Here is the input.
Amino acid sequence: MEFGTPRKRSGGGGGVAAFIFPKGAAADPALQKPRAAPRASVAASTEKRKLLVAGALGTVALVALVVGLAAGLALKSRRASLLAGAGPSALDADYCGRLPDAAQAYCTAYITSAGSERFPAASQWHKMSSITYECSGVKTTCLDRDLKGKGAGSSCRPLAEGAACSGGGDRKCRSGVCGGLAAWEAEQQAAAKARAAQEAEARAAAAASGRASNPAPAPGPSPAPLPPSAPAPARGAGWQTFAAEVHAGSPVMRVPETFLATSHEWDRITDYADNLEAFAPIFREFGPSPILRMGGASQDFLTEPPRREIWEAMAKMHAAFSARFLIGLPLWRPDSAAIASRMMKMADEYLPKKAIVGFELGNEPEFWPTSVGGYAPQANTTFVPGFDAYASYFGRTATKLNPCGPNTSPKLSGPGWGNVNTIDAAWLATQAKAPGARCYMRELSVHYYPYVNNDTIDARGLLDQGLQDFGLSKFQWLLGVAKAVRLPMRISETNSLYGGGRAGLSDTMAGTVWCADALFAFAQAGASGFHFHWGFGGRPLLGGQPNTGVQTNFWEAGPDKGKPYPSVHAPWYGYLLFRHATAGAAGGYSDATLVSTTTRPGGCRANIKVWGLRPEGGGLRVAVLNKDMDTPCNVELTLDGDYCASEAAVSRLLPGAQGMASKDGITWRGRSYDGSPNGLLKGAPSEERVAPVPLAGADGRCTVTVPMPAASGAVVEAAWGR
Here is the structure.
């Protein structure tokens, strides 16, 4: 069989993803149309030339003069009509080309997208440049028409020059900007200040925690790191020591049975069912009954329930590997309740009850193209902006879908609020405590993406402990609301970077380490689940997005041409380390409790994390991550005497030849998916054995020393017994 491209890479997927830029990112000049020539200067020059010709050519000149005057009058008439409110005729490339630089890209993304891809494009435009979006004329009615359309272009009509902005108030549209170009400059400056304030808050959180990471290396040359593929010595020669004591008798938080999970858009879930032989082994790595969240951005722009083939694919996945589903329902459209009701009935029709975890109503409402809001109860087609209108609308819709009754139970969660770092806990509390919420609300959910500039962040910044601590502090604030109403809190969508990630960072060893670290951190913080967003998985000839753990590729030739197959990428290896550290016997459900650890960095200047776990089946596991780019250290673990009777087993996660920048060559327990198109690891598993060293006069305690190269991870397993 002739393989296609087992390791196809992509810079961020296809469709609208290719046009949407992250917060703070500069627009791609290739997508920006040049500004139109100033009509006034062109017209004036033409007029002068025509007058000169008239004076020289007599009768012909008189005709030319008349024509020129007519053209000038027509031009003045068009300008007058614009000022009078006639406005541009269409939202098109000409209109987009006149907007300020970055806004051109958001506008172009919208008009060049087709059908359902308009919704995320509109959301991104509104989020990134609301003052140009407000003058674009994109409103609920025309956006709904555009969502149903097949091709590019738009039925929306921009507001006229001088017209009141759609957001209300006294502001006027000037040159396509609400408030004019001065307002545009102010918006850009405010965004920069907001990012700077967030970064300062993150640094302050790191300083307060006393765990600021990636400190400057000690003066003098650093010892050479261990080659990634070489077996580790008993102790790294010349490496500094990082000490950690694991307190097995001090439990902190039990890891939920199905904590590690995934999130998927609706449109390509059928690809998994089209090659279950290859994809089933992938999903079985999550445990006996993995949870897949269905929805994301695609749920809110649904104009009708997902097609029958999608439900059939979900049923096949449940039959093949006991998949269970958290099903995303629409909320943005005025007819969402009717569509959602039909979806809930279809779920009951195609799936057994045990395959349905619940239903998530709405996705990231604070990032809707209309901003947060809801439809008026008296006129369900009138969208009213503001959180109060949203809360009322959510409550009415939820009650219709899941009313109180003697034979009913709460089935809903949601919405999937956009980001732990930005959502107001007061909003969450208002919604969770709303009248009737106890009848329909089964859990609360929020998304988590690091609050960074996708374009400028590097591996060192992405793995900085202060950045994670900032997100965890925000999550704890929200978790307090959940505890007050006795509901769990799920991270229903996450990844190392938003917008599909960034090639060369999300799909490298940095992404691997970020995923593993975030799993342990949010499990210990108390989240009920952690869903890595795989988006659409992949598309023919385009591959998937950089932060997708397992992309969907397609055979390009041979008898299986066009058939999907799994292409494992760097983030996936972080999942494997976490599962090994938390899983029960024979790869069962997560069956471990995180325990207390204390650390003493000593002379080690590396960014190291240590997590102690006590599995229910006995023994002790310790997960160690060296998040540093280039500094290795010896990690000396102090264990209770109950775990010192025999050698400890060490399973390693190692980068490829490029260290933290490695996309390929990454191994877990000596094995790799490189070149594997069937969802199976290649090679035989390997582990090291490390003898414990008794501590004199320490009640039987011992130390186990594990050399940790830069950009690596390990799971140490110590058996119980004296």
Q: What stands out?
A: The chain has three domains: 93-183, 255-587, 596-718. Residues 255-587 form a domain with the TIM Barrel fold (CATH 3.20.20.80).
